Amino acid sequence: MNNSPEAAAKIAEYLLEIQAIRLQPENPFTWASGWKSPIYSDNRLALSYPEVRTYIKKEMGKFVKSHFPEAEAIVGVATAGIAPGALIADELELPFGYVRSEAKKHGMGKQVEGNIPVGTKIVVIEDLVSTGKSSLQAVDALRAHGAEVLGMASIFTYGFEAAVKAFESANCKYVSLCNYHVLIEVAAAKGLVKEEQLALLADWRKSPETWGQ
For residues 136 and 131, what is the distance between their CA atoms, to the nearest angstrom? Predict the structure, then answer.
């Protein structure tokens, strides 16, 4: 699912350093779904740091080219996937578009924005994948539009088993620059989490819907 271990670790280090990802195992966050979580990710913060933004752009460019050499266009998932998607399209010198969560209720009523002709071989870009539900809704919309979805790539994933199964069921290849396992290893090496917190962090990933209840 990942690229080189060195690049994955470097991205984890960057995301922790700029606090795009925060770890609070003993003071968990509450997600919109109601789930309790020891981690909160907002990779959009990376856009404010040129060094981080450029590193992610170049690594994702290489990553996409390696996994999806036939790509003819890049499509970001609104809204968080739009900016990284545009950066990666620029890096690869490919056309770019984005897909909304639903069709506009005015104007042209589009859900897929940009010039993405029927049959175009595309790679979908997300900043983060959790359960995969909204990501795969975007894939469904793009397939309905007539695009050939080669797969999806993200900056970070929690690596939930439910997401792995969802992508398999949808017959959609999925790869990620960095994941939860690598992040925790880097955080532990940098002293950001204690040894006794590692089991707690591992338990959350196994059963996120019931953790902390």
Answer: 10
Tell me how far apart the alpha carbons of residues 113 and 169 are, in angstroms, rounded to a whole number.
Answer: 26
Which range of residues forms the domain containing residue 140? 5-206
| CA end-to-end distance (rounded Å), the chain | 30
Q: Are strands 96-99 and 112-113 parallel, antiparallel or unpaired?
A: antiparallel
Tell me, yes or no, whether 212 lies in a domain: no
Instruction: Give domain status of residue 211, yes or no.
Output: no
Q: Dig out the tokens for 191 from the structure.
A: 């002293």
Beta strand spans in 46-133 (E): 73-77, 96-99, 112-113, 121-129
Instruction: Record the pTM.
Output: 0.94
In the chain, the number of structural domains is: 1
CA quadruple 20, 57, 79, 101: dihedral sign: negative
Report the candidate in 160, 122, 143, 153 with the shortest Cα–Cα distance to residue 60.
Answer: 153
Q: What is the pLDDT along the chain (213 residues), one digit of tens a residue?
A: 445 889 999 999 999 999 999 999 989 999 988 899 999 999 999 999 999 999 999 999 999 999 999 999 999 999 999 999 999 999 999 999 999 988 766 766 689 999 999 999 999 999 999 999 999 999 999 999 999 999 999 999 999 999 999 999 999 999 999 999 999 999 999 999 998 899 999 999 888 989 977
